[in-house]
Design goal:
The chain contains 5 helices and 6 strands; from the N terminus they run E-H-H-E-H-H-H-E-E-E-E. The protein has a 4-stranded antiparallel beta sheet. It has a two-stranded parallel sheet with strand order 1-2. It has about 200 residues and is an alpha+beta fold. The chain has a single domain, classed as TIM Barrel, CATH 3.20.20.140.
């Protein structure tokens, strides 16, 4: 359909949830999101599309909804009464490494899908690469280290995750923001140092 509008620079994204879980996920209604989680066949189609270079970036679509607000108190199992959305940022990289590497996705392509492409698209010209003139925003990952996702271990106050019980390999050990460590070995370091980034006109 996008080809019918050649004057518009369309890009395609996929969320990490749509690449990892299907509608048989054990967390059930807690995985409600828009667009909805689909079948395993659809998940594998998305992977083929990504590996064919037809998807520009992978995102988290981080839209937290606390557990007590997510479900309807009178009918907690009713998907039609549940709110849409959940957090996914903290598992994005590890999940992409886990699922992507076993399908042949390279680390360079992972960096392109999570950093370079979105930075270029949104005009964040000092982001997305390791090179002179770029902010040193980096993550150090242990590619051999595995962990099981547990909402109870998360810093999020959401109280649940649709990724609950998934074993992921490729744990983020350290995060650097503009060259300074802000996370290391499970601990957040220092006070918040985020800055508003103005997009160029």
């Amino acid at each position: 359909m996008a080809k019918a509008f050649p004057q518009i620079d369309f890009r395609r994204e996929v969320t990490i949830a749509h690449l990892c879980i299907d509608y048989d996920v054990e967390t059930g209604v807690l995985a409600k999101v828009n667009p909805p989680i689909r079948s395993r066949e659809d998940v594998e189609f998305l992977w083929r599309t990504l590996l064919d270079g037809k998807i520009d970036w992978v995102c988290s679509d981080h839209a937290c909804c606390r557990h007590e607000m997510k479900l309807d108190g009178s009918a907690p199992g009713d998907v039609f009464l549940a709110k849409s959305g959940f957090g996914g940022t903290e598992y994005l990289l590890s999940a992409l490494i886990t699922e992507g590497r076993r399908r042949g996705l390279s680390y360079n392509r992972i960096a392109e899908l999570t950093s370079w492409n979105p930075a270029r698209r949104f005009g964040l010209l000092r982001k997305g690469d390791v090179a002179p003139g770029f902010d040193a925003d980096l993550v150090l990952v242990d590619p051999q280290r595995s962990f099981v996702v547990r909402a109870a271990d998360s810093e999020s106050r959401q109280g649940y995750t649709p990724f609950e019980g998934m074993e992921l390999t490729g744990k983020v050990m350290t995060t650097l923001l503009r060259g300074a460590a802000v996370y290391d070995g499970g601990a957040i370091l220092g006070s918040p140092r985020g800055r508003y980034l103005h997009r160029p006109y």
